[in-house]
Amino acid sequence: MKTTLKLFLLALLTSCVSVKKHNAKHEILIAPKKLKQDVDFSYKKLQKLHPNLYWYISKDSLDYKFDSLKNSIRQPLKPNEFYRKLAPVIAQIKEGHLRLVPLEKRLTRKEIKNLEKQKGLLSRYNFVLDGNRIFVKDNAEKIPNMNVGTEILKIKDIPVKDLLESYRPFVNSDGENQTFQKYILARRWPSYFTAEHGILDSVKIEAQYRNEIKTFYLKREKITKTEKKKVENANKKITKSEKGKTKDYNVITKSFNRDLQFPVKDSTVAYMKIKTFSGTYSRKFYRESFETLKKSPAKYLILDIRDNLGGSLAEINNLYSYLVSEKFQFINDIEITSPSAMYQANYFSEFSWFTKPFAVAGYPFYLMGTALSIKKESDRFYLRNNGIFGLKKPKENTYKGKIYVLINGSSFSAASILPSKLKHEKRAFLVGEETGGANDGTVAGRYSTKKLPNSKLYLPIGLMLIQPSIEFTHTKKGVIPDHEIIPTLQEVLAKKDIQLDWVMEKIKEDSSQ
Q: Pfam families, per this entry (predicted)?
C-alpha cells in the first residue's frame, strides 16, 4: 500500500514538473536565425507533402511571401509571437484545411479536474459575425446579459473590432471563396482569444442589447451534482427512446447529428438534416431512412447540409449511392506527391492508448496496403480508386424523387464535394449560399503533422488531393447554388429560415401545378 502511494505521488509530481517545464517554453525567446530555420522547414515540408501547393497561389508569389517573412524577422520572438507571423503566410496558400497550430498551455491533472466540474466561459454560446461585429446567436442556458441579438462591443476592454482584425489573417478558405471566413471565424475566435489570454475564470464584457449598453463579468460556474444528474438522465432517456438514432445523439449539442422528418401532413416532402459527416453509425441511418422513404409517398427530398464542415468521404460516397439510379464513380483517383508521403501520415496518433497495441500489430498491413494501392501516371502518383471508391452500383432503395440541397458558406470539405457531384450530374437543385469548400475538390484525407524544430509549433499537412468525378469549373470558387438566398443578420437572429421557406414554397407551387 505504501509503495503504491509513493508511486502515485511520484507520478503526480513528475506530471506537475513536466507541465511546468512545457509551459515555461512558451516564454522563451527564440533567436532570429532559428526562427528562419523554422520558416524554411515549413516550406520544404509543404513542397514535399502537399499534392497541390500552387493551386491557388503561384510558386513565385509564395516564394516571395516566405522570403519576405524571413527578412522581417530581426528580433527574438516567443513561439506564439512567431505563430502570428507565420500563420498568415500559411493562410495565403488558400487551403481551408491547412493551418498552423499555436502552442497551448498544458494543464495539470488537478486543473483538468477542476475545469471538468465547471461550465465553459465563451464556449457556452454560438455567435454570428457581421463584418467586424459579434452577436450572440444562441444562449441555450439563458444566461443574463447575453440575450440572443446582444452585440459584444469589448472583451477585457479590447474592442471587438481589434480582436477580429488580429484573428482574421489566421483563417482562410479554399481558393477565392469569401463565404467561409465569417462562419469559421465565428467558431474559432473564442479559441484564438483563449490561446492569447489563457483559460480565465471570468472575463469583463461590454455589450449592447436593444440600444442599452452594459458592462458585466462572465464567470465560470460550477456544475452542481443535481445539474449533472439531470443532464445524464435526460440524455439517457433520449438516446433510449429514439429508434434508429440511438447512437447518433450528441450530448453536447443536445441534438441528433442526422435526422429524417416529414414536415407536411401528407408526407409528400421529406427533410433530411445532416450536421456532420462523422461516419459514425451513418450506414444504419441511411439504410433505415431510405427504406422509410421508399415506403413513403415522398415526391421531394430536402437534403440540408448547411453548417456541415464535412468529415467522412466514405459516408458521402454511401449517401450518394442512395440518390442516383445508375453506376457511378464518385471521386477521381486520389493524387499524392510521392509514395513516401503516405508513409509519413499520422498513423499511430489516430489511435487511443488502449488500441495502440492493435495499431502496432496492424502497421505492417497498413504499409503493405498503401504500397499496393499506389500507381504512377505521367510522373504523378495516385492511390487507386478501388473498394468503396471504385465504380459503384446504386442502392436498391435509391430515392427517385426530386432533390433540393440546402448549402451555405459553412458547408465545407465533404459537404462541398457532395453537392458538387450532385450539381454536375443534374441530380439536385441547390439553394442557399456558395459553399465554403471548393467546387473542384480539396486537399485533406490523411495528414502528416510536422513539429517545427525550434518554435515547436505544429503544422498538419494534408496528403491527398480529393476531387469529385466531374468536369472541373476551374473558377477557384465554391459550389454555386442554382438559386442564391443569403439571409440578413436580422433574419438569422430571429431564427427565420428563409432558404428552407423558399424551397417549401417552391414545392407547394410545383405540387399545385
A: Peptidase_S41
